[in-house]
Amino acid sequence: MERNWLVLVGGGHAAGKKVVVADVTKNLVSLADDDFPIKVEIVHLRDYAQPGVYAPSSVDFERLRANLGKMNENNKQTVVIVEGLYALYDKELREKAIMKAFVDGDADTRLSRWILRDIGDDQSKLGDILSTYLNHARPEMNEFIHPTKEFADVILPRGSETSGVKLISTGIYERIKEEAMNLPSEHHHLLDTPKIDLRKESFVEQNQQFYDLN
Asked: Signal peptide position in this chain (predicted)?
């Protein structure tokens, strides 16, 4: 049987999206077993984005959707995670996703991470980074990226934390396993798959418990 499930992980610059994806991937693989194997494919939106454009128009969503539609894995349960600034922006992708997560974070913390990540030993880059942040990235965050937070099933307020990652991983695994057990035998393509019912009331309740713990 061939089956792919779409997961979206969005959030701001240097919010920790890649770390969250890596931790979710590790958790999903650990949950899988011989009877229900899972493979994870990670797609980075930056590979579909035009550098230097700080707006949704930078992303070629049409090409992304086309490539996602071609993804199939033989005899594997495959979770395809799309990660990037605008992962929650495209309506068609949101409608196909079984899980949508937004990695949030304090603006000063994100800027600090950005500086540490990109400056290295070259202090001369600091001015360029601050200019890019103040003139482009911060307005982009406020106008385009932050509003996509409302589409998320799960919001991680401080990046990759154990309870949040576990919530996402377990939610994905339980839902796809439940649906897979009732799948017809014909093959399915990623963007031909009806959206899985996440039992939102129960899921939101678990999400609130996560916030209460933090």
From this structure: none
How many degrees, rounded to 5, is the angle at CA 18 between CA 14 and CA 24? Answer: 135
* Helices 17-31, 162-180: crossing angle, 10 deg rounding: 50
Is residue 170 a part of any domain in this protein?
yes
What does the alpha-carbon distance between residue 87 and residue 100 come to, in Å, rounded to a whole number?
9
Which residues is 195 bridged to in the sheet?
none
How confident is residue 193, by pLDDT bands cut at 50, 70 and 90? Answer: very low
Q: Coil, strand or helix: which one is 2?
A: strand
CA distance 32 to 199: 22
Nearest to 5 by CA among 180, 199, 162, 170: 180
Q: Is residue 212 part of a domain?
A: no
Q: Residue 112: its pLDDT value, please?
A: 72
Element (H, E) at 36: none
For the chain, the C-alpha Rg in angstroms (whole number) is 18
- Domain limits at 69? 5-182
Query: Taking CA 191 as the corner, what is the angle to CA 24 and CA 75, rounded to the nearest 5 degrees?
Result: 65
Question: How does DSSP assign 103-120, residue by residue?
Answer: E---HHHHHHHHHHHHHT
Structure tokens at 72: 């199939």
- Return the CATH number at 149: 3.40.50.300
The answer to whether residue 197 is domain-embedded is no
